Amino acid sequence: MNSKLQHTQQIKTEAKRLGFLSCGISKAEFLEEEAPRLEQWLNQNRHGEMQYMENHFDKRLDPTKLVADSKSVISLLLNYYPSEIQKDKTAPKLSKYAYGTDYHFVIKDKLKQLLHFIKNEIGDVHGRAFVDSAPVLDKAWAAKSGLGWIGKHSNLLTQQVGSFYFIAELIVDLDLEFDHKTTDHCGTCTACIDACPTQAIIEPYVVDGSKCISYFTIELKDQLPNSMKGQFDDWMFGCDVCQDVCPWNKFSKPHNEPLFNPHPELLEMTKKDWDEITEDTFKKVFQKSAVKRTKYAGLTRNIKFLKS
């Protein structure tokens, strides 16, 4: 077995041991196909107030600008699909990815372990770990690495497990065996487009980020626009509608990452509990959660907006 193939197999075996759903590898090179798409999307202001999307345009498309002499992008998926969801069907809803500990911490730790393993087993390898907080086009790299295809709702989809997973990557200066892109299996289905409460999927494969419920409830720091009243489908943080209706997600299986289990009180909270949530309860229930990003003021703003 040649060393390139051996190293690739070692990395994929270790990724599985660390709990990752799957691991795919692609060549670290300029993303030619994505460049015009990203430019057009930004020019049409589909990112709304997310000014950071305009920064580091070149770095978003070229991993060699993030890691000198990088050769490979190792893409990884980590399942977060919960075994249980919120009990009260009338309560404001929270996106499933935010039930447990903030995924940035959980995944970053696993990526550090994987990079440590690579250095120990393979040698003097340099690289960086990325978990959606840097200018990296996660979904594009995962698709290029054969881990799935980008669906009409612009999320990565996989036939075996759907789309309820996080995407992360290691960019390394190690030459590895590359995987191939998979084919698109959305077919004629338009379930996600038809179901989106704010018509944010403006055409197949194009989402207007500035119309997305996740954008309003997480990213937007100003007052929520009156024009959106009654359109949030009771989502107070994030939105899972386009994933919930996707036929491929009938194959989702519950994760086995204890850190993604919700705070014991979270799933039991009623509509009344949410309406009356105090800052102390917020701090207790969301102590290590990604929900802290909105802060108490942001979450209560969203809850009040649903009632108005």
From TrEMBL:
Q: Does the keyword 4Fe-4S apply?
A: yes
- Residues annotated to bind [4Fe-4S] cluster 2: 196, 212, 239, 242
The record's cofactor note says: Binds 2 [4Fe-4S] clusters per monomer.
Q: Required cofactors, per record?
A: [4Fe-4S] cluster; cob(II)alamin
Amino acids binding tRNA: 221
Q: Which keywords accompany this UniProt record?
A: 4Fe-4S, Cobalamin, Cobalt, Cytoplasm, Iron, Iron-sulfur, Metal-binding, Oxidoreductase, Queuosine biosynthesis, tRNA processing
The catalytic activity of this protein is classed by the Enzyme Commission as 1.17.99.6
Q: Which residues bind cob(II)alamin?
A: 60, 132, 156, 167, 214, 239-240
Q: What does this protein do?
A: Catalyzes the conversion of epoxyqueuosine (oQ) to queuosine (Q), which is a hypermodified base found in the wobble positions of tRNA(Asp), tRNA(Asn), tRNA(His) and tRNA(Tyr).
Kindly give the HAMAP family that the UniProt entry links to this protein. Answer: QueG (MF_00916)
Subunit structure of this entry?
Answer: Monomer.
Q: What protein name does the entry list?
A: Epoxyqueuosine reductase
| Source organism of the structure | Lacinutrix iliipiscaria
Q: What is the lineage of its organism?
A: Bacteria, Pseudomonadati, Bacteroidota, Flavobacteriia, Flavobacteriales
Name the gene behind this protein: queG
